[in-house]
Design brief:
Order of helices and strands: HEHEHHEHEHE
Number of strands: 5
Structural class: alpha+beta
Shape: globular
Oligomer: single chain
Largest sheet: 5 strands, antiparallel
CATH architecture of one domain: 3-Layer(aba) Sandwich
Bound molecules: flavin mononucleotide
CATH class of one domain: Alpha Beta
CATH topology of one domain: NADH Oxidase
Number of helices: 6
Strand content: 15-25%
């Protein structure tokens, strides 16, 4: 698949529709290496990845459940069970985190953007070699208990949890908007 086709034909697969095989070994290495080519002002390398595979998905579910109980001590058992089950939807998850730093030239937002570009490279690379994926955040991505459990600080940003696997069935091609509707040639200040 050429690069334009890979980028333009990528679309998300619902996490529950992702089954084995997930990318592991050389395929996962190729996907994560693609992330290293993300644009990166100041070569901050602000991206970090946490691979959550097998039983670790249950451990992440426990972290989500504990985080919910901390945020909302009144949370129902059903709500706790639901959030605990979220990481089990797909066979493998890669959490993409922006580990931000003080930098004289590179504002924090640009470091988060660089990590987001790395996440996009993961999504595209996974698609290009035949896997399905979706990036999801939800409140756990912005929760300090979850960040700490993954080994990060409050100031770091979980860009998203990339759920990976093989799509259970053929997907219908999603129509995309026309780029012209989002573009103007600018010539002078309004
Ligand atoms: C950083 C980030 C976080 C996201 N988090 C969620 C989420 O929590 N729940 C959700 O339904 N979609 C979320 N999305 C959107 C999906 O990943 C996906 O892009 C969307 O469903 C559109 O599908 P498409 O990628 O095929 O266009 C998120 C996207 C980004 C970029």
């Amino acid at each position: 698949m050429n690069a334009i086709d890979a980028i333009a034909s990528r679309q998300s697969t619902r996490a529950v529709m992702l089954t084995e095989p997930a990318p592991r070994g050389e395929d996962l290495a190729a996907i994560l290496q693609a992330a290293m080519s993300a644009p990166d002002h100041g070569a901050c390398r602000p991206w970090r990845f946490r691979i959550i595979d097998g039983d670790a998905r249950e451990a992440l579910g426990d972290v989500f459940a504990d985080a919910l109980k901390k945020r909302d001590p009144e949370a129902t058992n059903e709500a706790v069970a639901l959030i605990r089950s979220k990481p089990l939807r797909s066979p493998l998850i890669v959490a993409v985190v922006a580990k931000t730093m003080e930098h004289p030239k590179v504002p924090r937002v640009e470091q988060v953007v660089a990590a987001a570009c790395a996440a996009q490279n993961i999504l595209t690379a996974a698609h290009a070699i035949g896997y399905g994926a979706i990036i999801l955040s939800g409140w756990p991505a912005h929760d300090n208990h979850v960040k700490a459990a993954l080994g990060f600080m409050d100031k770091d940003e979980i860009v998203g949890f990339i759920y990976l696997g093989t799509p259970e069935s053929e997907q219908t091609v999603k129509p995309r908007p026309d780029h012209k509707d989002f573009t103007e040639v600018w010539t002078e200040a309004a």
